[in-house]
Design goal:
Length: about 140
């Protein structure tokens, strides 16, 4: 039985097989690219960040942020971002008002959290107030 395309043109059976093989190969490439984006440290960040949405775009932004920090000379940029995400999560009560992870990463929100962690450390040393590492009293 001959197959026809949407416009009524006959399609050779080998053409169908070729298209199917090309589609399978494209699917394999997409899956491997996604798996390479979802690194172990990205998964740690994803679990730590309070507002989990648009995971694929967040992974792209995460890797771009890591590259920016490496260019700035940070020794361990991934742990820097993860600890900042944990701190942000600790002080964010309502996810409704929490930035999307891609926005937080693109705007270098991790620098804000790192500054707050340093400020809390300074207060802890001065006043002797106990608190956890996420800055929650």
């Amino acid at each position: 039985m001959n197959q026809i395309d949407l416009w009524g043109n006959p399609i050779d059976e080998t053409d169908w097989k070729t298209r199917a093989l090309e589609a399978e190969e494209e699917l394999r490439r997409l899956k491997s690219r996604l798996e390479s984006q979802y690194t172990e440290n990205f998964i740690k960040f994803w679990k730590a960040y309070p507002n989990r949405c648009r995971k694929r775009y967040a992974a792209k932004c995460y890797h771009e942020a890591v590259a920016r920090l490496e260019a700035e000379g940070h020794e361990d940029p991934e742990n820097y971002i993860i600890s900042a995400a944990e701190a942000y999560s600790g002080r964010t009560k309502d996810v409704t008002y929490c930035q999307h992870p891609s926005t937080w990463l693109n705007q270098d929100g991790f620098h804000d959290e790192a500054a707050k962690i340093e400020e809390y450390d300074h207060l802890k040393d001065m006043l002797g107030i106990p608190y956890d590492s996420a800055g929650v009293y």
